[in-house]
Amino acid sequence: MAGAIATRLCADIGGTSIDLAVVEAGAVIRHRWSVPTPRDWPGLVAAFAQGLAAHPCADVAIATAGLVDPADGTITAVNVPAIHGRPLARDLSAALGVAVRAINDADAFVLAEATAGVARGQARVFGIILGTGVGGGLVQDERIVSGGGGIGGEWGHGAVLHPVPGHPGMVPVFPCGCGLAGCLDTIGGARGIERLHRFLHGIDATSLAITAGADAGDGAALATVDAWAALLGGPLAMLLNTIAATIVPVGGGLSRAPALIARLDTAVRANMLRPATTPIVVPGALGTDAGIIGAYAAGMVA
Predict the structure, then answer these.
(1) In whole angstroms, what is the distance from residue 121 CA to residue 141 CA?
(2) Full-prediction pTM beyond 0.85?
């Protein structure tokens, strides 16, 4: 294939499906398709081998659910059994005969927004994921900042919750999947805002219904989103005061509720030592392309 050396096969591995794409210089996506995420290793190798057979590429770059240990590339992703506990990049490279790089999907999102999205041109970017739960990543000069075991940007964990503003004595301390209680992950994502709504009002509602209700002026929904923004805004502002990031792109399902993100931005800026006059917490610009583009960008600096 002419020009194949300039192309990269990129993938975003999730628990349900793998999004694949052929990406060329400048992060231009030429082909894109999805396959169900295989349950076993041979099936996963086959999915990539078939992609390379149809679209020969110089190498492979992957964004994946779970932690990626920078020491040996071992993946911790219990929702993707085919790769859990495996040094994905090393093993897949051996199976395919091409170079492979793998990064965490939240890191990929932030890297994509820092190199080709809403944070392009910013030196230090802290991106957050508000999906089922809470995640994030830090990028400095277009490079991912990570630590031991692949931990980096995980602002959703640590017991930091306090009484709900305007509701004395009501503290939304819920058990977290990490083993602690009172983490932002328990209230910050879609399931979290639903949990907070139930806690405050005794009402079961989806995150979509809550955000739509707030937009329509529903009192209970407004109280929930205001409490949500206040509870997240302080800790996020403290983090930004510490790391001096200048912009916070937001991904995940809740990023598609612009009024909700605007409330969070207001709460963050109100808590910063040097309040900004323009938005800092903003929806990402790349949508479902972010994982693919972030994987591509990570491959550029491998």
Answers:
(1) 9
(2) yes
